[in-house]
Specification:
Elements lengths: L1 H21 L4 E11 L8 E6 L3 E6 L4 E6 L5 E5 L3 E7 L11 E5 L4 E9 L4
Parallel strand pairs: 1-8
Antiparallel strand pairs: 1-2, 1-5, 3-4, 3-6, 6-7
Length: 123
Amino acid sequence: MKHTTKFMFLVIVFVLALSACSNITTGIRGQSFLADCTGSEIAVDCTSTMPFATSLTIYDENLVVVKTVKTKKDGSFAIALDPGTYFIHPVNNGSFPMAGDFQVVVTEGEVVELTIQYDTGMR
């Protein structure tokens, strides 16, 4: 019984720690995907096909790097940010898969939802 109580305590602490990481109140949250796209522009008219782990660079309105973050293995991310205008740059190595940049305006108490579709280059 004593071991069960310790185990349950550790489970509760772990769950609370995980929820604290993803429960942001101001910032952006979303997921990145590999996607099949149409047309000649990169990452336009896309259909998501599978989650994609990547890195994102966040710039402020003066194009100064605020932070670079890695998504989780399932492509999900949650980034706490102060209110303001930000540019989100999905990192790529200059070849497919590629994604376009995003401009996001964050206001106090708001979490902006963002879906990033990485164009696989398959047409």
